[in-house]
Amino acid sequence: QVQLVESGGGLVQPGGSLRLSCVTSGGTFSNRAMGWFRQTPGKEREFVCGISSSGAGTYYADSVKGRFTISRDIAKNTVNLQMVSLKPEDTDVYYCAADRKLFGGSWLGPGDIGSWGQGTQVTVSS
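The structure corresponding to this sequence follows.
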């Protein structure tokens, strides 16, 4: 099973930027689609963005399109999320996620996920 460890969360002012990273181990990272979800306590976990196993395809939720960029570094077994123009409504716990199947596409639902990270808090506030 793939293990995931996120880093890079924190407090940022509206309009600011953050970069989240997720280091993977223990599995076939290069053959799995990866994604980022976020969740507010009491609400369902929301799919934010994903990247296909090949890295050629990406998907973004409308709420983050044009502001967030997902990428993967096969050599470092890492998936990154660059966030710019952050808004207070982006405040959430962000989770890295790995597809349970191999060679998948960039869209991921919660039922597709085989491994979750522990989550990292992102707070956008002045």
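The chain has no helices and eleven strands.
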